Structure prediction request, 254 residues.
Amino acid sequence: MRFCVLASGSHGNATYVEDTDGALLIDCGITARQCMQRMQERNIDPATIKGIIITHEHNDHIKGLPLLAARLKIPVLTSPKTWAKLNLKAEFISLRSELEIEFAGFKLRPFNITHDACDPLALVLASGKQQLGYCTDLGEITSSVYDNLKNCSGVIIESNHQPALLARGPYPAWLKSRVASPQGHLSNQEAMDLLESICTSNLQTVVAAHLSQVNNSPALLRDLWQERINKFIHKPDLYIAGQDTPLPIIQLPA
Ligand SMILES: [Zn+2]
Ligand SMILES: [Zn+2]
Prediction:
């Protein structure tokens, strides 16, 4: 299994995941044109994509979806409640929390997370012994987040904000409380605690994702995360996903 985070952050999210039988896109929150361009930059063939998974209905996860789903003529996989909000003409495949389905050669295991959307999901994509966890846009770490991510070989987890930067930043008070609430986004500290709790010898790769461009700093985040990882017995490779540049394609070990 290999994957490429094409974009990540509050201005748009999209991740490509490929295995031998085909590929999936998780979220399409950049324009369809940007999505195609970024795939081209990484030599990814869009014809491999068999479906688009939508985690929730916020614009930074669906902006390019109508056009891309129509252009590629592929189904949309999401929860029934989220699907009802999307108002799309496309084939719909239902994802329900804790109900595993097989699609495009992957076993998909969605699970609920807490976020201020109608029915937000995170998920694990499994193929053989490889498992990739995708978990962004969550306000708190519930036991189901931990249970689902604990055996992954790769994880993409949200590390949205540094609490001190959020507190003294320019957001209005209501937005600061929304971001920090259990229905909002994970702070760097919460994300590192999550990482520590799921880091077994299986975990090869970790991607810090959905960074706030206002209330976080990639350099600060890299220092904090690397310092924490250096204390682990088993040290996964760290990548930091960005808003404007796709990450390299990352191969999970067989
Ligand atoms: Zn988001
Ligand atoms: Zn969201």
Notes: The longest strand covers residues 106-112.
